[in-house]
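ok so for the tutorial part 2 we go from a plain amino acid sequence to predicted structure tokens. step 1 is just haveing the sequence, like this:
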Amino acid sequence: MLRKLFVAMVLLVAVALVTGCAPAITRTADPSEGDFYTEEEYQKLKKDQREAYCADLLTAYGEAQDCVESTGSDLSRERTAISDLENAVAGLNPQLMGLRSEVNALQGQISYFEGLPRMYMVDKGDFLSKISGMEEVYADPLKWKRIYRANKDAIDGFADPNLIYPDWELTIPRDWPHSYMVKEGENLWMIARRWEIYGEGRMWTEIFEANSNVLSDPNMIRPGQTLTIPR
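step 2 — the prediction. this is what the tokens look like for a chain of 231 residues:
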């Protein structure tokens, strides 16, 4: 735009020096819209038309300069904003690397747990706490009751829950239950205290609130009743 204006003004001066009277033209150029006279058209302009055209050129030139200055200021602000963002991103990189390390570690743990057996074939000399204490099962002999509850139908026919036989295939629960069937003599505190539920008796209120549609009193739960365990 500025280049066109400059060229047009140079042409004005050159043509004004060499041209005399010429037939007037009817088209009116508007420099503010980027519309300029050709050299031939300018030669045909009358003096007052040339003066008006020159004035329009100067006005358009001034407006173009203002636009360039304004755009330059905007560009400077944008560059500053980009620089600020780049600095902010650079500052977040250490956190991002830390989070990536945590994610990788968690993915490794997930892969490990997904690879743990969900079934166990009883071997000679096995009993539930021994199986529960195995590294690939729960690595904790005290968690044998969950194996017992998951295989209750098969084991309940015997007086001793550890009375299991070789070649029995036992289910090893791996998921965190979303429901729980109440046993005789249990209350919400005892249920919440189970390690596979919350491991904390004080969290019984979570279970009560999640089952408020069927429980009006936290002390009034019945054996055989299935409760929702919120996660």
